[in-house]
Amino acid sequence: MARAPFQVAAFPVRVQGNQQRQYAVFRRRVEGYWQAIAGGGEADETPLEAIQRESFEEAGIPFNSPWIVLQTQASVPITHFQDRAHWDDSVLVIPIYHFGVIVSTDEINLSSEHVEYQWVTEERAQTMLKWDSDCTALWELEQLLRLQRIGLR
């Protein structure tokens, strides 16, 4: 399938017995940095469909999990993507759409793209993440949950 000119990212979130929220962060196999689940859209997928697919492929998260659409958006230069030859020449940056996903299990089934994951607090994740846009999206998700604008199961 042809890669669509957008990127998606998501943070799985769970609640521990003490009601503390924890977020899964993922360490890339090749580059070694920590990030959210991330990937690109394919063909005519919407951003939500793309992140649902990517989250299932990279972490085994079911498609029917509760998804949270975040306001955080960022852009990334097209030079980060090899499969871009079919994009219009006027495309120089592509948007990144961010999401949260509520998970009911502690188990993440990693794909070969990552060597490990950790469940950490938002504060700890902020010190681990490479991308500023991931930090912003995670902060937004934490605020929504902390302010009880969205609920966890």
Can you describe this structure?
The chain has 153 residues and is an alpha+beta fold. The protein has a single domain (3-146), classed as Nucleoside Triphosphate Pyrophosphohydrolase (Alpha-Beta Complex), CATH 3.90.79. It is built from three helices and seven strands. Strands 1, 2, 3, 4, 5, 6 and 7 form a seven-stranded mixed beta sheet that branches. β2 and β3 form a beta hairpin. The protein is globular and about 50 Å long. The N and C termini lie far apart (35 Å). The mean pLDDT is 90.
Percent of residues in helices comes to 10-25%
Query: In angstroms, what separates the terminal alpha carbons?
Result: 35 Å
In CATH, the architecture is Alpha-Beta Complex
Report the count of strand segments: 7
From the spread of the alpha carbons, the general shape counts as globular
User: What is the quaternary state of this protein?
Assistant: single chain
Mean pLDDT: 90
CATH H-level superfamily title: Nucleoside Triphosphate Pyrophosphohydrolase
The largest pleated sheet is described as: 7 strands, mixed
Could you give a quick summary of the protein structure above?
With 153 residues, the chain is α+β, with helices and mostly antiparallel strands. It is built from 3 helices and 7 strands; from the N terminus they run E-E-E-E-H-E-E-E-H-H.
